Amino acid sequence: MKVVDEFVAAFNMRDARRIVHCLADDARFAAGAIGKFPALQHPAKIFESFITSTATMKMTVRPGTQQAAGPMVTHVRVDEVVMQNGSTNGSGVWFGVFGLRGGKIVDFIDWQIG
Fold first, then answer.
1. What is the pTM (predicted TM-score) of this model?
2. pLDDT at 88
3. Who's near 12: CB < 8 A, 6+ residues apart?
4. Which pLDDT does position 8 carry in this prediction?
5. How far, in Å, CA of 80 to CA of 90, rounded?
6. Contact 59, 11 (CB under 8 A)
7. Element spanning 45, H or E
8. Considering the chain, what percentage of its residues have pLDDT values greater than 70?
9. Quick one: 98 exposed, middle or buried, by C-beta within 10 A (0-12, 13-18, 19+)?
10. Contact (CB, 8 A) for 100 and 72
11. Rounded to an integer, what is the distance from CA 76 to the centroid of its chain?
């Protein structure tokens, strides 16, 4: 859970370098509505681009929702995002699933649930 906590903290600081540091070299990511998100792809450039397009960002893991089972971590998170253009795209309630290997995030799937 420590790696996922660090990952969320790096997003809250809008620190792309720290975000990428949490990822395995072969990390994969996808996000969206259940059944409607794109194929998994390497997240480093996606996250870097997203961070630079935000004005503010706050990710808050709901207390009591983060769980670990073996190499998997899940949580429910509320994201409050304001983009440079003033939109709030990306804001909402998310269910995150993280697969870890060697202390790094290798798989990250994020479903918007609210």
1. 0.90
2. 96
3. 57, 58, 59
4. 97
5. 8
6. yes
7. helix 44-52
8. 100
9. buried
10. yes
11. 11
Query: In three state form, how does the secondary structure of 50-102 look?
Result: HHHCEEEEEEEECCCCCEEECCEEEEEEEEEEEECCCCCCCCEEEEEEEEEEC
> What number is the average pLDDT over the span 47-63?
94
How big is the CA angle at 47 (ends 113 and 13), to the nearest 5 degrees? 90
Distance in angstroms (rounded) separating the CA atoms of residues 70 and 60:
23
- What is the number of other CB atoms lying within 10 angstroms of the CB of residue 68? 14
pLDDT tens figures, 82-97: 999 999 988 999 999 9
pLDDT in tens, 6-36: 999 999 999 999 999 999 999 999 888 777 7
Structure tokens at 53: 């397009």
